[in-house]
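Worked problem 6 (solution included).
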Amino acid sequence: MKRVRESGAQKLASRITEWFSTHPKDNYNYLQVSQELGIYGRANRQDVYDILLTLRQQDFLKEVSPGRFALASRKADQELEGVFERRRNGVHEVRVEGHDNPFVVYDDDDLHALSGDKVRIQAILGQKSREGQRARVVEVMERVKHRYVGEIQKNKEYCFVIPDNRALDKDIYIPMSEAGKLKTGDKVLVDIAHWPAFIKNPMGHIVDILGRSGDNTTEMHAILAEYGLPYKYPEKVVQAANRIADGCTPEEIARRLDYRRVTTFTIDPADAKDFDDALSLKRLAGGHWEAGVHIADVTHYVTPGSVIDKEAYSRATSIYLVDRTIPMLPERLCNELCSLRQDEDKLTFSVLFEMDGDANILRSRIVRTVIRSNRRFTYEEAQQIIETGQGDFAPEILQLDRLAKQLRARRFAQGAIAFDREEVKFVLDEKGKPSDVYFKVSRDANKLVEEFMLIANRAVAEAIGKVPAGKKPKTFVYRVHDKPSPERWDSLVSLASRLGHRMKSTGNNKEISQGINKLMQDIKGRPEENLLSMLAIRSMAKAVYTTQNIGHYGLAFDYYTHFTSPIRRYPDCMVHRLLDRYLFRNLRSAPGPEFEEKCEHSSAQEQLAAAAERASIKYKQAEYLNDRLGQVFQGTVSGVSEWGLYVELRDSLCEGMVNVRDLKDDHYIYDDRNFCLTGRRTRKKYTLGDTLNVQVAAVNMERKTVDFILADETPAPSSSAPSGRKRNGSGGRK
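Solution. The predicted structure is:
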């Protein structure tokens, strides 16, 4: 019965707050409020009075005279509107347009606002915390859709969900009518239905049952759901894709440049199924070469506005979790019709380059083609040919490798930045549990493919964006990358200096790029390598999609786009359609605002997908260490905060925390200027880049966190370390 009454109080409080919000200039006593809301009976009206008193205590209402209440008065100069961001430490933020720094809202002043809600806040004059100017939420103006993943706890009387997301530190109550056959330990997806200021816990509704907590597929789907990303493919989209016929008909082939007799092959990861790019090479007269970059012609099959196109746009990207790929397109398209499979005729969009022996591009052209891949190479197979000079199509691969190395050298000479941070990968058993860790490194075969994809993307961007002076370029989709922010750059220079690496704090773009490249070379193989390379990457601006070209700082290109992966990136599909519009149909410029909106959506989805991919890695790292409790590993201090030391293990790149309360030998003070903890009595310091031996103390799988404690100062015993830092040359995706 308690849950029923609480649910009723929630609804009543919500009605009362809504009433006063829509009557901001009037005041009422509890009888008038009851009458206006159609509430009768002494007990029910007593509930109204109790809620009015609570809303007054929360400063939502003011008592203008004994027993009469009105919406709390607000001074116009203190009243601001912004977007709420809920933090797991109870110190929330509201970002207000026109203000550089966010306002800080504590738990007691948040009116149960959630991340993304539009709120009205009131600055609390004279109260500034270390985090910033304090404020209170006085109104939740607009609720966004709030969806959480969590674990069911259930008994005969009530059912609630414990959210995985620590930013929401309240359980979500579920009506018993929805509990059905749910069991404690089930992982579910839940929407928050309502959460009035008067009630302690939100009420929610079950959206989907993901499975049993701890099951690998359940946890991977939970990660996707947490970021609002799809984990199932709509059946109607799959059916639509299955009805599409192969477009490689004699009529279509006749409209294209036929490249089926030119030596062509794909180079991809061993487990890849969606081959969206291929390379070709043929010798021209005069010692020149024609190198072809052939890209799956996805937009021949996916028409604008179709059910497949709408789903692809919504997703905007394929998602690569530790153990699975969540494709942007249905399997019929990504693995069959569009995939450039060996010995099959395929429709492609191609960039053909005429190059001399020094990899100078003499001319290029963009054409629609039909190709037939002669060989499907893995990166390992291509690398073997590069190293030995032997194997299928060795002359073509060796020549493309020579050209790629010259292109790469020229790019870095012009100011491109080299980030070759190792990528952690897991050996998984049949249940998806990690049994070992290895690292992917980029080798010559990877770099060969990368360089030709880069020049194809640049050539396409230049074909549309590079116009004579005084002429306005047509609307196009660019991949842009801004220069580092001065603040982040100064932090990197300062930290590198403390670790013994001198860098210039100022300079032009090329000088800064050269400084980063020198740092990357200097730290190769050193304990601080991963830390400084990670901070260098973080100092960079994020690359995004936009119709406003500012160039690509990291690549040192004035024009750049994404053209080469339309199977897994929606912006590439937009680029293909714009090329068709301008080069083959000679139409006027596409509407800029429409494409800018699509660019913003694609950039946002890309960042969500990247966050989900990182979360899946963190989960597997936690799972890996959960089987190694008590073992000792060597690590590097990767972060310092007032509550402890973040330590990244060298053999697995798993990260955990040594809590400051577990540093037993002294009371440690956080120095935020020097990124260190200093013992008050001993003056002992722990700082970024320090090498420590740590013991795995605890693992929280729901939160994907690991707790370490310091081990002795001797090197970590080899018997307790994993089987070794394995390296794998398969490299990442293009």
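Discussion: DSSP finds 17 helices and 35 strands in the chain.
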